[in-house]
Amino acid sequence: MKILLVGGHYKAHFLAKSLKAKRHEVVVINDDVEWCKFLTNAHDIVCVCGDGTKPFILEDARAAEMDAVAAITNKDAENLVICKLAKKLFGVKRTLAVVNDPKNLEVFTRLGVDKSISATEMLSEVIESETVFAGVQSYLPLENGRIACLDMVLSGDSPVCGRALRELDMPQGSIVGIIVRGEKTFVPNGDSVLRAEDKIIVLTSAAAADDATALFGADGG
């Protein structure tokens, strides 16, 4: 698929890394010149520097050729405009938006955005679970893209297989939020033992994301 990511700093970084690993073609729009240079060098992708709410910037990024456009800025109004322009002017079939204020989810859906995601709402469900790690709230700085949600599958030779979560030297600011095992999905506790082929969702600060990935020795899910 050809996917256009508009806005975001660490969100764009981790999404580009994940999507490239799955062999998607990724193009990024960002208004930060230095960040564009970083993304281009880090992921060998096309990065257009500019305001993604401007039609000519979307045109420069070949929006009309994209299978999907993801608006991931920190401003809901901008994300909505980006998605509306992508559909109306460029005929993009699939639009996705990060919604920073959960109250806006219904509005985005009503106005035609195909998929709206609220990280705050998703993470609050994990925090409120009875079995989530104590004190997890302090590990989740949500604003400005400082949290990463890593989706990984444990291979048979992963160093963590057969070990309980409490035995792992997790990077500071990181937790395993969800384990998907076959048809079963559950929020783990410290006694949960990891197995080969487990799909895990790791919530981590952006700064610790690479260390968390290395710890699990996992492949992108």
What does the secondary structure layout of this molecule look like, with pairings?
Layout: E1 2-6, H1 10-21, E2 25-30, H2 33-43, E3 46-49, H3 55-60, E4 68-71, H4 76-88, E5 94-98, H5 105-110, E6 115-117, H6 119-127, E7 147-153, E8 174-181, E9 184-186, E10 199-205, H7 209-216, E11 219-220
Structure description:
The protein is α/β, with parallel strands linked by helices. The protein has two domains: 2-117, Rossmann fold (3-Layer(aba) Sandwich), CATH 3.40.50; 123-220, Alpha-Beta Plaits. Helix content is 29%, strand content 24%. It contains seven helices and eleven strands. The chain has helices at residues 10-21, 33-43, 55-60, 76-88, 105-110, 119-127, 209-216, and strands at residues 2-6, 25-30, 46-49, 68-71, 94-98, 115-117, 147-153, 174-181, 184-186, 199-205, 219-220. Strands 3-2-1-4-5-6 form a six-stranded parallel β-sheet, with helices on both faces. A five-stranded antiparallel β-sheet has the order 9-8-10-7-11. Helix 4 (76-88) links the parallel strand 4 and strand 5.
